Amino acid sequence: MKILFDNGTPNPIARSLSRHDVSFVRAGTLGLPLMIAIISGKTHRFRPLVDLSQEAGRQAGHPAAQLKVGLHRFGYLAESSKQADDEFFPDYAQSLARIGSETRSEHFATKFVSHIGSESI
C-alpha cells in the first residue's frame, strides 16, 4: 500500500496501536509499520505484541525492512527520579484525575495514576 503526497513523494503510513493483539496481527498481515502509543505501563510489556506483528508480517510474505516499529510515550526527564517526581508528577496526577472525572470516573483516574510513576527507561 502506498500513499503519496500531492507532489508525488511517498507518505508513509503506520497503524497506531494500543494493547490489542488482534490489531498487531492485522498490522503485520497488511505489512504496515507500527506506531505504538504507550499511555501507561511498562514499555517492555509491548515486546511480545511487536514480535507477534513481525511474525504475522513474515508469514504474510512482507520483507522485514517493511515492518518498522515506532514508539510514542510521553514522559519527563530530570537529573533524578526524585526530581522528576517532585517537578512533574503532582500536576500530571491532578490533570489525569480531572480528565478521569470528566470522561469516566474518579476510579479510572485513581487506577490510571497508580500505574504511573518513576520508570527507568
Describe the global form: elongated
What value does the average pLDDT take?
77
State the share of residues found in helices, binned by percent: 40-55%
Strand segment tally: 3
Order of helices and strands: EHEHEHH
The major beta sheet can be summarized as: 3 strands, parallel
How many whole angstroms does the radius of gyration measure?
Answer: 18 Å
N→C terminal distance:
34 Å
Strand content: 5-15%
How many helices? The count is 4
Which structural class matches the secondary elements? mainly alpha
Number of domains: 2
| Biggest sheet, spatial arrangement of strands | 1-2-3
Q: Ranges with pLDDT <50 over ≥5 residues?
A: 105-121
Q: What's the structural blueprint in terms of helices and strands?
A:
Layout: E1 15-17, H1 21-30, E2 34-38, H2 47-59, E3 69-73, H3 81-103, H4 106-114
Parallel strand pairs: 1-2, 2-3
Helix pairs in contact: 1-2, 3-4
